[in-house]
Structure formats: structure tokens, C-alpha cells
Amino acid sequence: MIADPLLLPFLLINLLGIAGIVVWHLQGRGRPTARLIVQILFFTAMTAMLGFSGILPHRVNETHLTGFAAFLATSARVLWWTHLAWATIGFVRIYIVLDRRPREARLFQDLIIGVVYLGVALSIMGFVFGAPIGALTTTSGVVAIILGLALQNTLSDLFSGVALTLGRPFAIGDWIQLDDGTEGRVVENNWRSTHLLTLANNVVVLPNSVLAKVGLTNLSRPDETHQIFLIVRIAATHIPHVVEEVLRTALQACERIVHDPPPSVGLKAIDAVAIEAELMFRVVGPANRTPARNEVIDQVDLHCKQRGLSFAMPPQSYLYPLPTSGKEPQAAMGSRSSGTL
Questions:
Q1: Is the separation of the CB atoms in 83 and 42 below 8 Å?
Q2: Where are the beta strands (DSSP E) in the chain?
Q3: DSSP string spanning 112-177?
Q4: pLDDT along the chain (341 residues), means of 10
């Protein structure tokens, strides 16, 4: 057994595999490129040793080995398959980094890593230990169906998270607004949920299955500047073009709004009471909406007072005559009768 020509290659493969694990851990998580180089070098050396010795990692032909030699043969193949998984995962991570994928691509990366580990685990059980993969796969399928029914909501969140990652409607750091009015900045996106940081400094946790079904507006694309509309009602006793000029001057005096493109004033309607104007201006970001709106209102009030413009009463404050009933008061009827005589 000691003179067996395969004993030395198996021993060297085990040493290379263990050395690769030690060096890989010594590199640290802050050096992904160095880790990938280490994985490739050790995996290549182990593969070359297998090839030169005529050893197949997916087939056990050394049935004559026993004891320590058989242990070395088994551990060598296990280490080779393990390093194959790590090298594959290293390539996936480096691809995501070089491709400048957003941080939420970690979810898709974790899915690939899970598939790689599952495939390697089944390969080790089937090729190295000779386990019946067919029966094991059938049993795993039955178990998967049972778990799928039990974890239906969780799996819905999981696959919705994968769909959101592939569709990329938002990225970490984007400000989004949902149809129900919920809005905030995306601070985290994991397997189950998406976390939004609102203006009230609260974190809203949205299940991915819910987020995938509702409509959302990404306020950060193509940039975070977005338009705000403000309705102003000026008394109809003033000339419309003068009203437009005063309101435009008020917008130009504001410092907390975006002036490229310039703000605009649209006269929407006029009646016997009011001239209704719509102010349209952009702000730098969602967090600037309130201070920008406050400044616009302040400047509009200041310029209107300087130019002698008065605001119109709101429509709900108008006085309407009350409807009268079919019968009139007796006094009124008597006076009408006497008047017609």
C-alpha cells in the first residue's frame, strides 16, 4: 500500500487543498481579487496533479485502496470539488464587481452561490461517496413540495425579490414613491423585504411580494430633481398678464428651487372672483420639497403685496342662497297679495 503510485498524488492534492484554504482565509474579505487568484492557483495545481496522475475526480477507480490511503483518495476528491465551487463563486463575485452592478445584486449573487453549493454537494455525494443521486433527487423533490406549501409566503417574497433584482426598478439609495403615498429612500434590499427610510426618519419594511404588485415611481431617475405644482388664486380685479409677471418674478427670487430649467407660471382659469394660476418649479430632491415650497409661498406673498395684488377667497367660502320651500311665509304672501291689488 505504501508503494502504491497513487498515494503520493493524493497526499499532494490534500496538502494543496488544505494550504489553499489557509491562504484563502489569510487574505481576508477586503481583498476579493487576491482571494480569487489564490483560488484559481490552488485549483489549477490540484487539477494538474489529478490529470498527470490519471485520477478522475468524478469517478472512483481505486477500490483496492484501504485505510489511510482510501481516506486520502476520498478527501482529495472532496477538496477538489470544494475548490471548484469556491473558484466558480469567486468568478461570479468578481464579475459583479467589474460589471459595476448595484449593491442589491448581492441577492442574485447569493442565489447563484446557493445553486453552486447545491450542485457541488450532490456531485460529492454521487461521484465520491457513490450515493444514489436519482433516489436522493426524488426524495428531495417531495420534500421541496412540502416545504414550498408550508413556506408559500416566504417563497413569494423570495422570488419577488429575484424579479425586482433582475428588473432593477430601483437601486440602493434611490428615492421611491408607492401608489398608496408611501415614499422613502431605499436603504436595504434582501431576500424577503425592502427597507425604506422616510422623511420622518422611520424605516418602512415592505415585503418583496407586496412591492412587486404595487406601482412605484422612482424619484431618483433620471435624477432626483422633480417638479412641484402650486395653485395660487388672485382676485379677478387684476389684469391677467400682470398677475403672471408678478408670480414669475416671485419664482425667480427663490433660491431653494432649480432655475435650469426655469420655473414657469400657467394661468389655468378665470371667473368673476379669481384668476387661478399654477406655479411649476423643480427642487433638488425630495427632502427639499417642504423648504422650497415654503420659500415660494413667502416670495409670492411678498411680491403680491408689493405690487398691490390681493388673493381671492377660496371657492368653499362663497355664499350661496339657500333653496326655498314650496310654501312661502304668510307675511310675504300677504304683502304680495296687497301689492297686486
A1: yes
A2: 175-178, 183-189, 193-197, 203-207, 216-218, 226-235, 264-270, 274-283
A3: HHHHHHHHHHHHIIIIIS---HHHHHHHHHHHHHHHHHHTHHHHHHHHHHHHHHHH-S--TT-EEE
A4: 68 87 78 77 86 77 72 85 83 63 58 77 74 62 59 68 77 88 88 87 88 86 88 94 95 93 93 93 90 95 94 76 49 39 31
What tens digit of pLDDT does each residue of 323-334 get?
A: 555 444 444 444
**In 3-state terms, the chain is what percent helix, strand and coil (to 5)?**
55, 15, 30
What is the spatial distance between Cα 10 and Cα 70, in angstroms, rounded to a whole number?
9
Task: Describe the strand order of the beta sheet including 274-283 as a list of residue ranges.
Answer: 226-235, 274-283, 264-270
User: Which residues, listed in sequence order, are joined to residue 274 by a DSSP beta bridge?
Assistant: 235
pLDDT of residue 152: 59
Q: Concatenated DSSP letters for 205-217?
A: EEEHHHHHHS-EE
Beta partners for 188?
195
Instruction: Compute, in degrees rounded to 10, the torsion defined by CA atoms 21, 27, 28, 34.
Output: -110
Closest CA to 276 of 313, 307, 324, 306: 313
Residue linked to cell 415660494: 296
